[in-house]
Amino acid sequence: MDADLHSILAADEGPALRVVNANAASPVVIVCEHASNRLPRALGNLGLDEAALSSHIAWDPGALAVALALGAALGATVIAANFSRLAYDCNRPPEAPGAMPARSEVYEVPGNAWLSDAQKQARVQGLYKPFHAAVADALAARGAGAVLVTIHSFTPVYFGQPRAVELGILHDQDSRLADAMLAQAAAHTTLKTERNQPYGADDGVTHTLQRHAIKSGILNVMIEIRNDLLASAAGQAKAAQELASLLSAALASPRGAVA
Predict the structure, then answer these.
(1) For residue 86, with 0-12 CB atoms within 10 Å meaning exposed, 13-18 middle and 19 or more buried, which class applies?
(2) Looking at the domain assignment, is residue 118 inside a domain?
(3) The pTM is what?
(4) pLDDT at 71 over 80
(5) 184 inside domain
(6) Which of 16, 39, 62, 95 has its CA 20 to 30 A from that of 122?
(7) Is residue 92 over pLDDT 50?
């Protein structure tokens, strides 16, 4: 299928995203932009081998399992992308080079090189816009008391450098919920926790927070978990349990309490 002329997704490939527990009573909306390494058929394998497509450049391993378990623990809605960040990274705006990267860490992505405007627009229309429309709708349904939490995982070695941090609590201009979580972290998680690590707003990773929460004053936080800690079901369950406890305590604290 020529993505210049047709939708990026065939009818039998399903929607660009999944929504779990859409009518949840909780004010929390959990978002997982990098939940899947699946590619639309129209893109083939983007010139990558199976090892690359299974690696962190294609998705955030373990993040979806944590997001779903956290959603179940909190009784919250979960919104997850159904396709790889290499097709479109839903945590980047369309104008960002990383939205459809031609290179990710040490990997060249041949299928993303020299994309035409029509090819880019097919991905924006088919993957990015539906995802963010669903996030906006879920937050609007909860009003001013909504809470946006995004769940990610990161590779333990990046450009050959090991990372000691295990849990990153990230924020952009609005640090209220991140501050509350960091203040409570020692009591609720055994993970080595740091602020704005291994990335921060200056790295361009807070697009979802910026688009849906910063300007409107919605409480928000981005959570990064080192993916070697999520390699097993037990590790995923532990991370989700600790995050549920930590996030609940932070939201109940004066600094993070929902208005």
Answers:
(1) buried
(2) yes
(3) 0.94
(4) yes
(5) yes
(6) 62
(7) yes
Q: Greatest CA separation found in the chain? A: 54
CA 19 to chain centre: 14
Instruction: Please list, residue by residue across 143-161, b when 16 or more beta carbons sit within 10 angstroms of its beta carbon and e when fewer do.
Output: eeebbbbbbbbbbbeeeee
CB 33 within 8 A of CB 148: no
Q: Which helix (H) or strand (E) covers residue 35, if one does? A: none
Alpha helices in the chain (DSSP H): 50-54, 63-74, 117-123, 129-142, 176-188, 207-209, 233-252
Q: Both tokens of residue 67?
A: 């997001």
Positions of E strands within the chain: 17-20, 28-32, 77-81, 103-104, 107-108, 147-154, 157-158, 161-162, 167-170, 193-195, 219-226
3-class state of residue 107 by DSSP: strand
In terms of residue numbers, what domain contains 196?
11-252
Tokens of 187: 């009591």
Closest listed residue to residue 119, CA positions, set 2, 247, 214, 16: 2
d(CA 253, CA 176) in angstroms, rounded, equals 11
Residues 6+ apart with CB under 8 A from 80: 17, 18, 20, 31, 32, 35, 36, 64, 67, 68
Q: What CATH number corresponds to the domain at position 86?
A: 3.40.630.40
* Digit-coded pLDDT (tens) for 195-221: 999 999 999 999 999 999 999 999 999
For the beta carbon of residue 45, count every other beta carbon within 10 angstroms: 13
- Cα(234)–Cα(238) distance, integer angstroms: 6
Q: What three-state secondary structure class fits 171?
A: coil
- For the chain, the domain total comes to 1
160: Cα separation from own chain's centroid: 23
